[in-house]
Amino acid sequence: MERCFGIVQEGPKHDRVYDIGEHLFLALKHTPTTDPLVKLAALLHDVGKADTVEIASDGNVTFYQHDVVGGQIVLQITRRFNLSKKQTDRIYRLVRWHLFTVDENQTDSAIRRFIKNVGLENIEDMMAVRIGDRLGGGTQNAVSWRMEEFSKRIKEVLKKPFSISDLKINGSDVMKTLQIKPGPKVGEILQKLFEEVLEDSSKNDSDYLSNRIKELA
User: I want to staple 50 with a disulfide (CB 3.0 to 4.6 A). Which of 3, 114, 150, 153 is the partner?
Assistant: First the structure.
């Protein structure tokens, strides 16, 4: 954490007025929750910036992949704190995916991908961390109209139940196509197909999925 102090976020593409260390403590202060795990995630959300800071040719300071690096640092910290797997997973997701794009025009597939990455049970906590992040920067309001519209989009997508059972093929199709008996392989293939359809809903087509079953075998 102490390495984050003194690293400024300057340049034509930044609107922060504090260094990273100051920003993290302000984010902690402004994150609207009493949950200690969410507060910890807010405190650590930009911890990966100390290891990813670079100065671009235009003078802008960049921190590419700091969310990925930060996620790995969080795993080390939670091990030292001896936190449970569930607690670790929760904090990791809040740090690893805190850079989500707020866009009310995102497709259903993109929204589902966001929900899958963050975890449905962590959506409200992630929004709280984003509020702390915004207020901790010193130049933004707690919530923008885009955040409000994005939240509405999430609710809209959640009203459209989508699970493996909604695929245009099922376990019987997998067993028939591959001429195999019930077993773990059937579930593994269905899960892979489901993840593909989450990325692109147009792939939820029986012919396409039948061909993919053979390729995934």
Answer: 3
Radius of gyration for the alpha carbons in the chain, expressed in angstroms and rounded: 21
Q: Is 119 left (phi over 0), alpha (psi -120 to 50) or beta?
A: left
Domain count for the chain, please give it.
2
Rounded-to-integer distance, Cα 97 and Cα 45, Å: 9
Cβ–Cβ under 8 Å, residues 212 and 193: yes
Q: Are 152 and 191 in contact (CB under 8 A)?
A: no
Same domain, 107 and 37: yes
pTM of the model: 0.78
Please tell me whether residues 99 and 8 are part of one structural domain.
yes
Q: 108 and 195: one domain?
A: no
Is 178 found in the same domain as 105? no
pLDDT tens for 10-56 read: 665 555 678 999 999 999 999 999 999 999 999 999 999 999 999 88
- List for the chain the helix, strand, coil content (%; round to 5): 65, 0, 35
